[in-house]
Amino acid sequence: MEIQDLLGRPIHSPEIKDFFAQYHLPQKPNPEYDAYGNLFWVRVNNEENTIRCLFTGYVRYAPAYGEPIGNYNKEKDQLILHEITIYPLATPNGKIPEIALPFGLNIGDDKKTIEQKIGKKLTGKRLSNVGGTFYEIFFEEFRLLLALNPNEQLNWLTIFKLDLYEKERICLKALLKSQNKNIDPNRIPEIQAFLSETPIAQWRQRMAEGDDMFSEESITAVEKALTEYMQTLCEAMQKKNATTVYNSMGKLVKTLNKINDKYGLIETMEREELCEWMNAIIRKTGLELADNVDITDEYREW
Fold it and tell me: What angle do CA 157, 158, 162 make, to 5 degrees?
């Protein structure tokens, strides 16, 4: 069994018990509870802290991830595994027990080797505060967070069980081409009318009333980003390209991330206003999204 196949299994399952025994993890971890008395984020680490497992009780696990694998007792709120981290940096020599990582990866593999082993390009690079980079790669049932050192060699990794929302988003992306027929260019005038419904006017009003969180420079930067997004969106609609319609929102969110990093003008109210506008406009194109899908949250940092 691959290590990622342990995700979604109860702590009492034979597979988890064997894993714990092999790598000397405690069989009976100290429980942690949320404010309602439900088991939540119970950590189980080996003595060296190089193998770290995260469990959550059934009551909180099932709504987020679906039903666990194998036999379990709903009434006892049994612990279910949903995250495993392999972290050699916890030891002075940076070594871990001999453990089979996903796709035959090894600590120290370079970026090219990693891509060859997992069969995917490493994209969406994020910089680490201590040097090096992070990459996040999605698969059918789990995602990998890979931490590379400044020499682009694998330092450590975390394997996450995909939650139901992540699975839904992956499914949506896979089916985007089939939604080309839903994109209606006849709605472009309605889309363009959304420019008069952005929260920009309210923000300028708040600034005029003395809210010093705003400046004309910061508001203009957001206004420019929304206007340019509108042009890109209408071009994608004209071509009936659902993938470009969807991806254009991600680009807008990333632009707003940068603007907010610079000016710090998006707080709770502004976030709600922007998200409402952005989710309304993307659905007006004809793109079919589940009601619970927030089109902004994949990349949003505000």
Answer: 140
Q: What is the rounded CA–CA span in Å between residue 152 and residue 87?
A: 16
Q: How far apart (Å, rounded) are the C-alpha atoms in residues 229 and 145?
A: 30
Distance CA 243, CA 187 (A): 17
* Residue 297: both structure tokens together: 């949250």
Q: What is the pTM of this model?
A: 0.71
Token duo for residue 139 = 């698969």
Give the separation between CA 107 and CA 94, rounded to whole angstroms: 9
Query: Which residues 6+ apart lie within 8 Å of 191 measured at CB?
Result: 230, 233, 234, 237, 281, 284, 285
The number of angstroms, rounded, from the C-alpha of 228 to the middle of its chain's C-alpha atoms is 26
Task: Give pLDDT tens digits for 51-93.
Answer: 999 999 999 999 999 999 998 877 788 999 999 999 998 887 7
Contacts of 12 (CB under 8 A, 6+ apart): 72, 78
- Nearest alpha carbon to residue 147 among 137, 139, 157: 157
Residue type, 125: K
